[in-house]
Amino acid sequence: MILIMTIVLFCIFGLFHTIYMFIPLYTSRPQKQNDPSKETGVCILIPAYNESLVIKNCLMGIQNVNYTNLEVFFINDGSIDNTLKILDDLLTLKKTFRRKLGRLNHERVNDLYRSQRFPNIFVIDKENGGKADALNTGIEFAEKEIIITLDADSVLEPNALNEMNKAFSNNKVVAAGGLVNIVQGYKNERNAFTPSFKISGLIRFQVVQYMTAFYLHKATQAKLQSMTVIAGAFGAFRKSILLEAKGYRKTVGEDMDITLRIQELIGTKMKGKRIAFVPEAVCYTECPESFKNLFKQRIRWQKAFVDCIITYRKSFYRKMNFTASTYLLFDSLLLGTLSAYSTLLVPVVILITMSHLKLAFLLLTISISLAILQNIATLIVSRRYGHQYEIKDFVSLLFFIPLEVMFYRVTGLLFVSIGTIIYFFDKEGWSRSERIGKQIVFHKEGNVTKNIGG
Amino acid sequence: MKKYVVSNVIFTTFFLMIILPLCYLLYDYIIHYGATPAAAKGPLNVSDVPYNSVNKDFTGVEEYASKVVVLMYHQVIPKKKLKKHHFQDNGELEETIITLENFQSQMDYLKENHYTVLSLKEFELFMTGEKRVPAKSVLLTFDDGFKNVFEFAYPVLKDHGFPAVHFLITGLITKENVHYKPALHQYASIDEVRKSADVFDYGNHTNMFHQKNKNDMSFVTAYDKAEVKEDLVRANEWLGQSITFAAPYGEYNEETLEILQELNTKMAFTVNPGYAEPFGRSLEIPRWQVFPKLSLDDFKYILGE
């Protein structure tokens, strides 16, 4: 009985992973470059709670963006450090006034400031209310059509918004996820910001994982119209859909929550609309550098996931479309969460009973092969989008892959298992990851000008 | 679009080269799981298995037998190790299974009441009328070659000094030794067959024809004579030397008997109750099946008391 279940689970697992390799390989194509579509108005919302370490980096990224029809809102969510002061120093803030939409509720806003140096950058100073609340406040003030949500530790690549804009030129697209890369996986050289693999194992693991998750998994999900999370680090939405969804809900994982709500809308009121994934629109974010912080982050993600599954349990297959529901229930829940326990237990059981050694070995070989092949597919696909490693980095990456598969993935399973259990005891928990504040210097784009305010 | 074709094709080929063989292995494992863990390829080596030709001297016995009881067993499993699948839907034990406890008490009874348990050789000579055997004589037979018989009944028989005949489905005897698992339907390994030759004489229970077709007919009666013969020959070759046969499910017909004659089989057993008498039909020797529900009194009744 257990044996049959294992094999069935394993076959589903194999199927999903094969799909994840071949759909991106055969369908992912960079958007055409010769498409100077009209710039739609974009409003970037950056919730900031005690972000003094990284806020400067984030601002720098925004100043480098090649986009003119742009508004930026830093939302100081009642920080108790000097975030607001740093913003003032950098932007020279002056109080201003703007009408709100009046459609979403949020905590009291103390003041709205406008930068005197860059007139399209605003700072909202409000009472603390959490990330969802901060985003809702930002939506209230935003006047542009497209809303970009950005984490304070995320730095936009100069052309990211232009690529996002191309995706939104398609009327069917109501929301889109950008590609999130790990900033520690890059190095600043004299004239370029290039991928590098000279980093600690823990970060390597996350770099590889992010790449696989975005270039393969998200690309596949977008293709099959089953995106379930638009990463909070870099997401784009039409303002109308956010209002339709009644804004963000205060929860552990507001990014997954809003994505699922949009999926519900697509499945009911707004048939034919879709959520896109735009791998050319890149942002860089920091990843935890210590095991402890990684653990915290992953536990938080898993809690967010479990929370969403429970919240939306009645919507699957009814309000949400077939592929999205299937993906979420089978891949994320069944394989990602439930089978994590069995996967962790299988080696123990096998060692105790010493039966089915051959089968265990066979399944292990298949999963390792699949994982390695998947990593290779990631490299092939990411290369098409210009994510290219130098030869020596490439070699060390190849050597790292088996290690990643055998060691780090098991650790990942551990996080998932523990996170699920912890959810049922403590639904709140840590709200964000540690901040590091690594400098990014863009030199590659020769034509980057400080177009903000110009 | 075209510029990705090369890398895609290379990757796909690479993928198939690695994954397909692995999938095949997995498929192979699943297909073979539960059936037999790879049948023993080589035959039973005759030199390893001395023909159990015990031929005791029965002269001077007060009373000689006019008929002999042949008992038929299939599986012997200790009570503790019985699993759900050993029982029928009505909660009764499968008819082919008796508990080790019952088996032990039956053997004890035979021992205490001075029964003579015959070897195959002695029984053969009794049937041909060349030898007289004591009045209280029995022949013990087992069908199929289940692992549990080797695991549990063999030590009891050896303890009591009782020989027995074991009819093997030779195609199901496995190549490798595995641990006994009550949850599985296990057959003995070739090693176990060899090691237990001091108690068992082995008989032919077909090579792979212990099966039924769609119409619930035993292969032995459903297939052409030539095919049945080929299967029996294969089993005989595997056993090396076999003078005896038992038909699966007790189903046989005239053709089967012809084949047995052609193969020079000395004795063949049925599953019909009755007693073996000298000069009787040696290819249709009746046997008493020992059912799980049989009480010791029923057992005595079968023994003719």
TrEMBL record, chain A:
Gene3D superfamilies: Spore Coat Polysaccharide Biosynthesis Protein SpsA, Chain A. The keyword DNA-binding does not apply. The chain crosses the membrane at residues 6-26, 328-353, 359-382, 394-425. CDD domains: CESA_like. Residues 43-242 form the Glycosyltransferase 2-like domain. It comes from the Bacteria. Keywords: Glycosyltransferase, Membrane, Transferase, Transmembrane, Transmembrane helix. The keyword Cell membrane does not apply. InterPro entries: Glyco_trans_2-like (IPR001173), Nucleotide-diphossugar_trans (IPR029044). Belongs to the glycosyltransferase 2 family. PANTHER family: POLY-BETA-1,6-N-ACETYL-D-GLUCOSAMINE SYNTHASE. This is Glycosyltransferase family 2 protein. It comes from Cytobacillus citreus.
From TrEMBL, chain B:
The chain crosses the membrane at residues 6-27. Keywords: Membrane, Signal, Transmembrane, Transmembrane helix. Residues 136-305 form the NodB homology domain. Gene3D superfamilies: Glycoside hydrolase/deacetylase. It is found in: Secreted. It comes from the Bacteria. This is Polysaccharide deacetylase family protein.
